[in-house]
Amino acid sequence: MEKNSKIYVAGHRGLVGSALVLKLKESGYTNLIFRTHAELDLTNTEAVAGFFAKEKPDYVFLAAAKVGGIVANNTYRADFIYANLMIQNNVVHQSYLNKVKKLMFLGSTCIYPKSCPQPMDESYLLTDVLEYTNEPYAIAKIAGIKLCESYNLQYGTNYISVMPTNLYGPNDNFDLEKSHVLPALIRKIHLGKALEQNDWATIDKDLANLPIEGVSSNDSIVDKTAILNKYGISKNDSGEVTVEIWGSGKPMREFLWSEDMADACVFLMENRDFVDTYSSDSKEIRNTHINIGTGKDISIHDLANTIKEKIGFNGSFYFNANKPDGTLKKLTSVKKLNALGWKHKIELEEGILNIYNWYLSKNS
Ligand SMILES: NC(=O)C1=CN([C@@H]2O[C@H](COP(=O)(O)OP(=O)(O)OC[C@H]3O[C@@H](n4cnc5c(N)ncnc54)[C@H](OP(=O)(O)O)[C@@H]3O)[C@@H](O)[C@H]2O)C=CC1
Ligand SMILES: C[C@H]1O[C@H](OP(=O)(O)OP(=O)(O)OC[C@H]2O[C@@H](n3cnc4c(=O)[nH]c(N)nc43)[C@H](O)[C@@H]2O)[C@@H](O)[C@@H](O)C1=O
Asked: How many angstroms is it from 173 CA to the middle of ligand 1?
């Protein structure tokens, strides 16, 4: 990528997209283009065709997608598969028609089998059944890998696919029903600490900036307490606050800081082409994607206690077995990525402090 190349970052305001924009600017790329979801709905084929014909970007980072946590994926199954298939089909096909030099497709490590050998090597793709809760989303992501591979093989394009582990960082989604676990626990434990301190000013600020459905900050304390209860944040008669954790707390998860993710994406876009992803004597070319992660995981139970300690919450947790655990372990093999010379920098404890300070800067 040349410093004045026209680079389109799809999803530029999201968790990954916003980190990518920062990283590209820091790296001296001066010709970035973007459109908000409202300006350009990437599920709209005609609109995407018009955008690409007009802008003709040289490079594309496809970081736009319909994204959510385990309950959102399991609830809005049709939306997750439809929107993500439409977005990637439109962007990849229009990139081909408009001669984009290189495109990066962002998938997810949920593409690997539910009971995949650990750590999960890229070659384990399609070797067994997927985790049910996010199967529609995972199938869309697998289709994205195959779309890029197939365009490359048939039309000679240079589209590379990366499979990130769970990510967190600034501009994450903190909605308590639709988000991923780490932002959800940051917010719930933050609210739990405010509740144990009767700090209604903090609760009001949180609700004002990130409204919890059904409550406004001028509702009575009784109403707000009822809403907090609904989201699993409650105080008993002796004043002890409990925060609900979904599932058993036993699942293991890996977490990569979003700015490390952006760094890996720019590194790969600058250093890895499709032809580098398979050996020249391969008869059947597949699994050309590359994992991005830390190679380290933690149980949800220990994650919650780490966040509790960093935030300074003194209450307790209730593990709600009525909520799904999902895959028990999905540790990425980062062997390939590390061999290319890239390794993450931000470890989880530092990242949790970073994201909590960022959250406070937006909500206090
Ligand atoms: N977060 C994570 O833990 C992980 C994410 N990924 C992948 O990384 C990529 C980025 O995810 P992340 O940054 O977390 O997601 P976010 O939801 O934070 O950002 C996605 C962006 O895409 C935009 N978008 C969604 N639908 C459309 C649409 N139809 N048209 C135009 N824009 C749209 C959103 O805009 P708006 O909000 O306005 O709708 C948002 O800006 C995705 O491909 C995701 O699958 C992979 C593994 C883990
Ligand atoms: C990145 C990856 O993310 C998703 O997969 P996931 O990692 O299973 O998603 P998750 O982060 O929502 O949950 C991780 C674990 O955490 C537990 N958990 C506890 N308490 C809360 C909680 O309050 N909220 C959430 N969301 N989870 C909780 C939860 O029960 C589960 O055991 C895919 O949908 C897909 O988007 C994908 O690719």
From this structure: 10
